[in-house]
């Protein structure tokens, strides 16, 4: 299978310029391709992951990915796919975001070997551009009508768009021209909302090179589809929060659980999009979904592959330990302090300042049982677990031997109400 055939199989081809020409090019040489990431936040999210993985796919097929950090374009703001004008971030903030994004790209791409990835920042060339040069040398090639007809602009005319965001497409076009001329980049890829900016860049390359319309193109554009879910809700969010690649913002455990919870109706598509499993492996998992959906083999594989890709094998192991301890046969007492913190981030917690405390008193103080009477009843009924062990003794003291990692005790009431007890350092 050629790279493009593989991408077709995965459903990853949204739009492409001159598909036949591109197919020929990709089969005949090692092609430099780029994708840009604007620093509009301090982390990339799971939506960006698809384009990062795309760069990897090209790289594995022998091509050379260039990841661009939009140090300059991030100061302007891409109107593509946005319903309203953005507020500009301070320069220092964009600088800080750029550093973060660059670090993430460095983690997820491969910078070794013959067709190693490279990183660039468009501030390095756009930052130098004088307004006179920009308007004379670049702006002259853009017709205002052409610019107005782009979706990103057209959809905003009614509610208003600043000259700043209106001009964004010229900057991204200039990047493509610059990278084509200076580094031999022949292909730009991006999400489906980037089609307008990418084709504007191709037009600029053609004009700057004095080519006629219809002449053999010097460069190509390619977009991947927007990730959609069968239930119509937005992909990449849980309870309104985005799934970030930064482990401080979304822990590997949360990331793992997010993928594990993929619907049966989406999981095969996501395996195709996000993993490097081949056609045969994917169709085997497809059979699993159809015949033994409750075992969630496909979801497990998806979660494993992606957690490893983003956070590494050790983090996957941790995420699985936490999941087992919380939902399965795992042992809470085997968890490290870090794993406990990750796994119990969302459960109610309570700080104890004493060295030890009577279990009955703890249940009341921490609000686990509503009254002392109820607390006694809960214990004698066998509804109370300390670190996974049931305790029915009303005299039970929670003390040193119940402190996990010297710091935590996990109390459970009933089937799945967890509470985290923090032993405050004396
Ligand atoms: N406009 C792209 C990012 C980008 C920036 C500069 C480029 O040259 C290319 C792409 C986005 O918002 O996702």
TrEMBL record:
Decide whether keyword Cytoplasm is in the record.
Answer: yes
**Motif stretch ('KMSKS' region):** 234-238
Q: Where is this motif: 'HIGH' region?
A: 39-48
All copies of the RNA-binding S4 domain together span 358-419
Q: Which residues bind ATP?
A: 237
A GO molecular-function annotation: protein homodimerization activity
Q: Where in the cell is it found?
A: Cytoplasm
Q: Name one GO cellular component term.
A: cytosol
Keywords (alphabetical) are: Aminoacyl-tRNA synthetase, ATP-binding, Cytoplasm, Ligase, Nucleotide-binding, Protein biosynthesis, RNA-binding
Residues annotated as binding L-tyrosine: 34, 168, 172
Catalyzed reactions per annotation = tRNA(Tyr) + L-tyrosine + ATP = L-tyrosyl-tRNA(Tyr) + AMP + diphosphate + H(+)
**Enzyme Commission no:** 6.1.1.1
Pfam families in the cross-refs: SYY_C-terminal, tRNA-synt_1b
The cross-references to PANTHER family, in alphabetical order and at most eight, read: TYROSINE--TRNA LIGASE, MITOCHONDRIAL, TYROSYL-TRNA SYNTHETASE
Query: Into which family does the record put it?
Result: Belongs to the class-I aminoacyl-tRNA synthetase family. TyrS type 1 subfamily.
So what does this one do? Answer: Catalyzes the attachment of tyrosine to tRNA(Tyr) in a two-step reaction: tyrosine is first activated by ATP to form Tyr-AMP and then transferred to the acceptor end of tRNA(Tyr).
Write down what this protein is called: Tyrosine--tRNA ligase
Which organism's genome codes for this protein? Paenalkalicoccus suaedae
Q: What is the lineage of its organism?
A: Bacteria, Bacillati, Bacillota, Bacilli, Bacillales
Per the record, the gene is tyrS
């Amino acid at each position: 299978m050629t790279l493009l055939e593989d991408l077709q199989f995965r459903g990853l081809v949204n739009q492409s310029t001159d598909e036949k020409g591109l197919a020929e090019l990709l089969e005949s040489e090692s092609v430099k391709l780029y994708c840009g990431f604007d620093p509009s936040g301090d982390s990339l999210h799971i939506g960006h992951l698809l384009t990062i993985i795309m760069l990897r796919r090209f790289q594995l097929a022998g091509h050379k990915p260039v990841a661009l950090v939009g140090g300059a374009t991030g100061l302007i703001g891409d109107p593509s796919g946005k319903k309203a004008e953005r507020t500009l971030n301070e320069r220092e903030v964009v600088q800080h975001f750029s550093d973060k994004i660059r670090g993430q790209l460095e983690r997820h791409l491969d910078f070794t070997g013959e067709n190693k990835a490279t990183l660039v920042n468009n501030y390095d060339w756009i930052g130098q551009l004088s307004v006179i040069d920009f308007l004379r040398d670049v702006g002259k090639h853009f017709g205002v009508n052409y610019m107005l007809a782009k979706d990103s602009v057209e959809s905003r005319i009614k509610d208003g768009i600043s000259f700043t965001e209106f001009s964004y497409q010229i900057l991204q076009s200039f990047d493509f021209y610059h990278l084509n001329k200076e580094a031999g980049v022949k292909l730009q890829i991006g999400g489906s909302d980037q089609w307008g900016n990418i084709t504007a860049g191709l037009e600029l390359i053609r004009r700057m090179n004095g080519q006629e319309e219809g002449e053999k193109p010097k460069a190509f554009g390619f977009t991947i589809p927007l990730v959609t879910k069968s239930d119509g809700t937005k992909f990449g969010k849980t309870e309104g929060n985005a799934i970030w690649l930064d482990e401080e913002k979304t822990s590997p455990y949360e990331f793992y659980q997010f993928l594990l919870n993929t619907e049966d109706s989406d999981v095969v598509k996501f395996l195709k999009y996000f993993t490097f499993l081949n056609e045969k492996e994917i169709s085997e998992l497809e059979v699993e979904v159809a015949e033994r959906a409750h075992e969630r083999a496909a979801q497990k594989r998806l979660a494993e592959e992606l957690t490893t890709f983003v956070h590494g094998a050790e983090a996957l192991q941790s995420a699985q330990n936490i999941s087992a301890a919380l939902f399965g046969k795992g042992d809470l007492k085997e968890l490290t302090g870090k794993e406990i913190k990750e796994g119990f981030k969302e459960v109610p917690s309570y700080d104890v300042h004493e060295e030890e405390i009577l279990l009955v008193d703890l249940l009341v103080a921490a609000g686990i049982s509503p009254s002392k009477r109820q607390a006694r009843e809960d214990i004698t009924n066998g509804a109370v677990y300390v670190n996974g062990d049931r305790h029915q003794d009303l005299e039970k003291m929670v003390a040193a031997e119940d402190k996990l990692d010297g710091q935590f005790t996990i109390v459970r009431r009933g089937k799945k109400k967890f509470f985290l007890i923090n032993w405050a350092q004396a």
